[in-house]
Design a protein that fits this description.
Blueprint lengths: L2 H12 L7 E4 L1 H14 L3 E6 L6 H9 L3 E4 L2 H9 L7 E3 L6 H9 L4 E4 L2 H10 L4 E5 L7 E3 L9 H13 L3 E6 L4 E3 L5 H17 L6 E3 L15 H16 L5 E4 L3 H4 L3 E11 L8 E5 L19 E2 L7 E7 L8 E11 L7 E5 L20 E4 L1
Parallel strand pairs: 1-18, 2-3, 2-11, 3-4, 5-6, 6-8, 8-10, 10-11, 13-15
Antiparallel strand pairs: 1-12, 7-9, 12-13, 12-17, 14-17, 15-16
Amino acid sequence: MTERIREFLRDRRERGIDEGPVLVVDLDVVKDNYTAFAKALPDTRVFYAVKANPAPEVLSLLASMGSCFDTASVQEIEMALAAGATPDRISFGNTIKKERDIARAYALGIRLFAIDCQAEADKVARAAPGAKVFCRILCDGAGAEWPLSRKFGCEPAMAVDVLEHAFKAGLEPYGISFHVGSQQRNQHAWDRALAQAAAVFKECGERGINLSMVNLGGGFPTKYLKNVPTVRTYGNAIFKALRKHFGNRIPETIIEPGRGMVGNAGMIETEVVLVSKKSEEDDVRWVYLDIGKFGGLAETMDESIRYAIKTPRDADAMAPCVLAGPTCDSADVLYEKQPYPLPVSLEIGDKLLIEGTGAYTSTYSAVAFNGLPPLKTIHI
């Protein structure tokens, strides 16, 4: 949590402003994060994953610093363009696209598309003739706190056939992409994926198709309860893996940080609505907040992401509690399998600060479930 956010929230409380839960994002932190990524892999282009936080303030800042953008929809493409990015700095990175959306992106000037099967290549060939494509390969995500599923990507051996098919369809096979899993704390996780990418490069070359780019994906973590390696540590490990598997012929590279770019820049202020027990004999309290899974904390699903929570009573004795949101939905429980330690003196009306919430919060709260308004977000 930055001192700027502390001061901002303190000033709001002193002025009596209380508008329910609020996310505050410090743009100076985003700026510092971009600089760190750019320096960690200086020969790599940074494509910010817009889905992590598509706020105009964030996109405009990054566009002004020279960032490129990884987009998942036509709407995100339009957001990046409105923020000042040029079409050559935008990729349509979703492997699941309607053909009319590909056509719209092409009309907007986008020439870089992700694919992972022949059918998707055919759609791109029809709607975006001559465009560059990169094929996403499957990655096991070992070491990630949130491993990705098999929804995106194909086996490396199949990727060669997909790229050859794209070539024959009139597209430009540009490279390979992969994702090592969200919140990847193992800086060596890219090694195996790069070995697979190098194998695809080699086999494509034997078929007369010369690839030139490796999209290293995202997965760069932000700090929640556990410390994470520095961006520089990841940069060094990735460069060594590139040299190991590609020798002196290192390809062009792209990284797609999302969480690692904005996660630690944001903090949510929330209020305790209720503290109760389910029986007189129950030792575990239930603490209900005015924000839950449907208000922006969807990543607590399966308790995968455990946020750092600060209270005004942290000097008091602690005891485990079940933490839940305010909605009339039984799924709106944040932490129950592994109860969260909070002060025994916690009271209704106390303000809690949830750190590391700059990514994947404001967008997950876009719908006013139960009539509760979307998460108010302020950028400073």
